[in-house]
Amino acid sequence: MDSPDLRYVVEEFQSSVAVKQRILEDSAFTEQVLHMGQLLIERYRGGNKLLIGGNGGSAADAQHIAAEFVSRFNFDRPGLPALALTTDTSILTAVGNDYGYDQLFRRQLEANGVAGDVFLGISTSGNSPNILQALEAAAEKGVTTFGMTGESGGAMRELCDYCLCVPSAETPRIQEVHILIGHTLCAMVELALFADLQPQ
């Protein structure tokens, strides 16, 4: 097989752009992002926090998004409480060993989630067992649930208060949009809560 050429690179970029273009043409999708951002702003104003979970690349996305809230995004401002439930190896291995991998995020939500918090579950398939368990635990705790998944939505679609189903079946394309959504939510919250700190 020949090595990928410039056409391959261009086609990859075009594939990514095409998914985002489909979203831009779907007002229901962008309106849902708006509503999620507005709710997150309200919850932060009320003293709540964001908890995020995912597996593999989605675990990396959880950590990336949490970092944007805690550190900064577009400009300097106070940190916002956000926890990636994917980072503490002692917790992950203890829960995995004692209760099973599908309980990884449920157990943390039971321990750290309080009513009014927001849990963001990320799964490209929408069927990751530990995310589904976490969504159920969140509902039991009064934690609002956001989901980001692929075009089918999987089982997550019915378990989330808000579920963004990226219109693609290709994992890389789905993940590219997930991080765009995370960035957009963070930018909305940052601007709403700290507009006075934005550089002029």
List the helices and strands and how they pair.
Layout: H1 6-24, H2 27-45, E1 50-53, H3 57-70, E2 82-84, H4 89-98, H5 104-112, E3 118-122, H6 129-141, E4 144-149, H7 156-159, E5 162-165, H8 171-194
Parallel strand pairs: 1-2, 1-3, 3-4, 4-5
Helix pairs in contact: 1-8, 2-8, 3-8, 5-6
Pathway: Carbohydrate biosynthesis; D-glycero-D-manno-heptose 7-phosphate biosynthesis; D-glycero-alpha-D-manno-heptose 7-phosphate and D-glycero-beta-D-manno-heptose 7-phosphate from sedoheptulose 7-phosphate: step 1/1
Enzyme class: isomerase
Family: Belongs to the SIS family. GmhA subfamily.
Cα separation of the termini:
53 Å
Number of strands: 5
Order of strands across the biggest sheet? Answer: 2-1-3-4-5
CATH superfamily: Glucose-6-phosphate isomerase like protein, domain 1
Question: Would you identify the regions where 5 or more consecutive residues have pLDDT less than 50?
Answer: none
Supply the number of structural domains: 1
CATH topology: Rossmann fold
Strand percentage, roughly? Answer: 5-15%
Give the helix proportion (percent range). Answer: 55-70%
What does the overall shape look like? globular
Summing up helix and strand content along with how strands pair, one would put the structural category as alpha/beta
Count of runs of 4 or more consecutive helical residues: 8
Pathway: Carbohydrate biosynthesis; D-glycero-D-manno-heptose 7-phosphate biosynthesis; D-glycero-alpha-D-manno-heptose 7-phosphate and D-glycero-beta-D-manno-heptose 7-phosphate from sedoheptulose 7-phosphate: step 1/1
EC number: 5.3.1.28
Keywords: Carbohydrate metabolism, Cytoplasm, Isomerase, Metal-binding, Zinc
Family: Belongs to the SIS family. GmhA subfamily.
